[in-house]
Specification:
Radius of gyration: 19 Å
Number of domains: 2
Number of strands: 12
Shape: globular
Helix content: 10-25%
Low-confidence stretches: 4-18
Strand content: 25-35%
Mean pLDDT: 93
Distance between the termini: 32 Å
Bound molecules: S-adenosylmethionine
Oligomer: single chain
Length: about 290
Amino acid sequence: MPDHAMTKPSTRTPKRTARRKPRPARQPLTAATADRHDLYTAAVQNVAAEIDFVDQTYKTLRGQYATRLREDFCGTAQTCAEWVRRRPGNVAVGLDLDEPTLQWGREKVMSRLTEEQQARVILKNRDVRDPGRKARDMDLILAMNFSSNALMARSDMLAYFKAIRKSLAPGGLFIMDCYGGSESLLEQEERRACKGFTYVWDQVHYNPIDATLDTAIHFEFKDGTSIRNAFTYHWRLWTLAELRDVLADAGFARSTVYWEGDDGKGGGDGVFKPAARGDACASWIAYIVAEID
Ligand SMILES: C[S@@+](CC[C@H](N)C(=O)[O-])C[C@H]1O[C@@H](n2cnc3c(N)ncnc32)[C@H](O)[C@@H]1O
């Protein structure tokens, strides 16, 4: 995933107790011992920051907190888990096409929730364009980490946005992120050190004729081993303007771009605000917030 999408989650230091048993020493990560979903979660996702943003945006626009959230392209459903942990009344629905990934989420993510929290999550193996009855009446529908770029044709994106419109409760919001800038068109690798491994974002090939971008995520370890192509994506690199046009055609009343502020050192400050004008940064991420009424 583009690097600016990732802010490290804050870490909490557990309280020390005098008689705590010493933990077994952690084995260094290697290609043989690491799990690609764990590495993805650590390197790419920051669901707490994501939920902070969507929760606050809904509260600001609607004057109250949302309760029903759908995570489209949910993968291992980390966002669903974070949503039900936030407040006792919160309910989450996750949709993804890939059964092994959903199963990993059930075993490794859902299992860390209490039984009561698990009862407030529904995970479905479904195409986001055909979400089903249980995925309706949503206050918030999210498509994050640029996942809607998997929909290549305009007709696919239109079908998706129409399905979202039908799935939103009155006052509901659809929020997606978008990646762009001159660097998004370059064939290049970006490396970032993470705890125990290096994360590599590889923009393998960009085709200017149909705006498709082939990308891959690799992981490298201190012992010299690596997991190449741990995840690969075939995207269409949609622009904000194109996406907003399709949203309007799908019947959304309004869409607003939330643009990131400047940290004064050439980077983003992590604060996204409604904007009509952005800067031509080398790379940027932005959110679109779409409203049906
Ligand atoms: C980049 S992962 C996103 C994981 C996670 N939500 C995140 O924010 O990092 C994209 C996911 O979209 C799923 N996917 C792709 N096309 C889909 C579709 N049409 N309907 C449902 N899921 C889809 C893939 O199976 C994959 O798990």
